Each structure stands twice: as structure tokens, then as C-alpha cells.
DNA sequence: GCCGTATAAAACCTTTAAGTTAAATAACTG
DNA sequence: CAGTTATTTAACTTAAAGGTTTTATACGGC
């Protein structure tokens, strides 16, 4: 998976409007106008956000009369998940997640609780 | 988890230099100069990237003589993972991931390996 | 063919991101 | 204290992001 690809995906996700659009699309395919409705923002602005999401592969656009329906394509999110997995052990072992870690590794009862400090 | 927080995390991750820095820090704490070495980029540029990572909570900085060691803090990545989980079912059911989905839901043993084509 | 609706494109503005170089700060070393 | 190393700050440049308004395109209904 190319670096550029992750660049596009992460920067698409870095905007709250775009994440809200994805959340809406998780409920089902809809039109640009309906997507735009919750935002105090012009239509063209939404069109631009959709372009960013499309470039990241996160949405697919159809064509139905004068509407261009958008639907979610979550495949890129799986790539993000896969990238994240490399770091899983780090958040699992971080201070406030130590308990989760202990559950996961299933050590015996008397391993010492020593951590880096 | 506030929207701003995810904004910061995602935009910190949207740059390949910063992701490379995180990858390096996964190997252990190190200094700014050593972090800068692999990149054809001035020191101050790296300092800026570190500021972005720090603002996102992804690194922690120490102080040791004239060095300012950086270490990874992956806790924000867990927030990303949690956010992603909302979309898990979408990538699992998407066309080209159908096989994985079938494995996961534990259908009977003779589902063939057919994929879209 | 013309009108209304849905969407996109163009042109523009403002802010922020990412880099640069040069100067400043901080800490060790002799 | 002067010099060297590590890092940050300041000032600046360039380009991209995110918004605007105005204009164009595409389609369905009359």
C-alpha cells in the first residue's frame, strides 16, 4: 500500500465535515443536497469535500437522473486498520491501558507489575 | 472524544514524514537529530513535524542535557481504532473482502474460495 | 423548447501547512 | 568563559486547503 494512498485517506479523515458525511453514508446512499443539509456551508463546498472523499476511495458516486448519489466504500478504512495494527502493542502497554494488556497476554497471577518509568 | 482531537490525530498521520517518525520511534526513544537523518529536510522542519505529533499526543518529549528525546505515545491511535470500529462491518461486507467476512462469521466448512471477478 | 431542480466548474479569497535560512537558546567541554 | 553540539524560534516563501459567489451543465416535467 503506497504512502500516498495513506496520505489521501488520512487527510480525508482529518476533517469533521467529511467524517460526518461518512457517518451519514453509513446509514445509506443519499444525494449531495441531503448530505449538505446539516452543514452551514454552500453546496460547492460539499461537492469539494466529496471529491476529497472520492479521491481517497471512501465513497462511490452513482448517476441517477439529475442526482449523483453517494455511497460509502469502507475498504480504505481497512487499510487504516491494518496500518494501526503495527502499533497495537504500544497502546495496549501504555500506562492507562495496562489492565487490558494484562488480560490479553494472560500471564499467571504473580508476574510483577513492573513498567518502564 | 472531541472532534478536534480526531482532527489533530488524523492530520498528524496524514504526512509520510510523520508516519516514518512514528515508525522509527516504535523502535525506541531517540533524539531529534537522529530522527531527522533519514530525511532530506532541515532540522527546523523536523522540529515542526514533532510539534504536530506532540499536539496530537502521539509523542512525548523528554529533556536530557542538550537533547530533547522523543518517545512514542500510541494512546491516540487507540482512539482512531475505536473510531474505525464503527465502520468495520462496512469493510467486512464489501465486495472484494467478502471472503474474509465469510471466514470471520464462521460459515460452514465448504464455502468455496470464490471471489468477485 | 423552456423552466425548475441538482450538481459541478471557475474564479477568487483567506488561512494554514510545510518547507527554507539565519539567529537564538541551552547545555556540555575544555 | 569560549567553543561546540543540539534544538528551537523567527521571519519568510510557496503551495494547498477550505470556503465563498457566480456561471455552467444535465436532467425531468410541462
UniProtKB/TrEMBL annotation, chains A, B:
Residues 1-92 form the HTH arsR-type domain. One of its GO terms (molecular function) is DNA-binding transcription factor activity. Signal peptide: none annotated. InterPro entries: ArsR-like_HTH, HTH_ArsR_DNA-bd_dom, WH-like_DNA-bd_sf, WH_DNA-bd_sf. It comes from the Bacteria. It holds the Pfam family HTH_20. This is Transcriptional regulator. It comes from Phyllobacterium endophyticum.
Amino acid at each position: 500500500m503506497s504512502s500516498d494512498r495513506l496520505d489521501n485517506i488520512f487527510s480525508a479523515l482529518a476533517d469533521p465535515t467529511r467524517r460526518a458525511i461518512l457517518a451519514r453514508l453509513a446509514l445509506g446512499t443519499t444525494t449531495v443536497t441531503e448530505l449538505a443539509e446539516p452543514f452551514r456551508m454552500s453546496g460547492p463546498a460539499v461537492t469539494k469535500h466529496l471529491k476529497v472523499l472520492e479521491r481517497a476511495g471512501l465513497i462511490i458516486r452513482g448517476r441517477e437522473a439529475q442526482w449523483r448519489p453517494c455511497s460509502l466504500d469502507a475498504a480504505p478504512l481497512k487499510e487504516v486498520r491494518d496500518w494501526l495494527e503495527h502499533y497495537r502493542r504500544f497502546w495496549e502497554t501504555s500506562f492507562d491501558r495496562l489492565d487490558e494488556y494484562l488480560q490479553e497476554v494472560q500471564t499467571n497471577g504473580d508476574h510483577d507489575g513492573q513498567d518502564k518509568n
